[in-house]
Amino acid sequence: MLLRQLEYLVALARERHFARAAAACFVSQPSLSAAIRRLEHELDVPIVRRDRRYEGLTPEGEVVLAWAHRILAERDALHQELSALRGGLAGTLRLGIVPTALPAASLLTTPFCERHPGARVSLESLSSAEITHGLAEFELDAAMTYLDDDELRHVRRFPLYEERYVLLTPADGPLATASTARWADVAALPLCLLSPRMRNRRIIDECFAADGATAAPAIESDSVAGLYAHLPGGRWSSVISHAWLHMFGVPDGLRVVPLVGPAHGPRVGLVVARSEPQSVLAEALLKVAREVGVRDALDALLKTYLGAGG
Fold this sequence. Notes:
Blueprint: H1 3-15, H2 18-25, H3 29-43, E1 48-50, E2 54-57, H4 59-85, E3 91-97, H5 106-115, E4 119-125, H6 128-136, E5 142-146, E6 155-162, E7 165-170, E8 181-182, H7 183-186, E9 192-194, H8 199-210, E10 219-221, H9 224-229, E11 238-241, H10 245-248, E12 254-260, E13 267-273, H11 280-292, H12 294-307
Parallel strand pairs: 3-4, 3-5, 8-12, 9-10
Antiparallel strand pairs: 1-2, 5-13, 6-13, 7-11, 7-12
Helix pairs in contact: 1-2, 1-3, 1-4, 2-3, 5-11
C-alpha cells in the first residue's frame, strides 16, 4: 500500500467526483482510478461504489477512509516533529476560521510566522459544521471559532476573546453622540447586517430579542467585507463585533457607539482535536496564542476608537 493511494482516496471522498479528485491531486483520472483499484485489490475489499460515476464509498470504504486520514496525519506529524528537531518548524498549518473571526486572524498568524519562518499558514473560511468535520478528519490542524458551538466535540479549547458588539452609525445620525445605545434603539435605524444564515447574525438577533426588539435590515450580506462596503456614504448603520475593527477600522463619516443591554457576546477561541496524533504546528500556534494577548489587543483597539470619538 502506498501513501499516494490513500491520498487519492481522501481526495475522492472529499471531491465526490473522479475528475475533480484527479485534478486536485495533479494526476490524470485514469491514474487515480487505477490507484484506487489497486488499493481495493491489496486490501481485498470493495472501497468505491461505482456505476457510470462516483456513487460514494462502501461500508468497507468508510473504514479505509478513516484509517487513511489517520495514517496521513501520522505522516504529517512525523515530518513536523523531525523539522522541529532539525532546528525549526516546517510544513503548512491548516487553519479553519469562521468568517466573522477572519478579521482578527492576523493577530495570531503574523506572530506565528515571525516565530516559525520555515512554516506556512493556509487559512480557510469555513462554517462551524465544516470546521467540526475538518478537525475530525484531520483536514485541519486547528480552528478559530465560537467556543460555545454545540457541534464541537472531542476538542481542546483555548479562549481568545469575547465578542463585544458596537454600533457603527453615521456621524449625523440620531445615536451618533450617545455614550451608549440600547439594542431596541438600534433596531429603529436603517440597518445593514449579515445574513441570517451567518452564526454572528443569529447571535445578534438574539441580542435584539433580549431587549424586546426585532431587527429588519434593508441590506444583508454574507460577508463582513460586503457589509462594510455599504457603510460609507452616511445612509446605513450596522452592528459589528469589535474584532472587525482590527481589519476594517471605522469608515469616514461614521461613529462607534457601545451597545448595552441584557445580552453578552460569545467567546471566540482556538480549538484543536483531542485525537492522536497531535499536530506539532497546532501546538506551536496555541503557544503563540497564550503569549500574544489577542483579547487585550482588541480591547485596546476599541478603546482607541471610542476615545477618538469614532
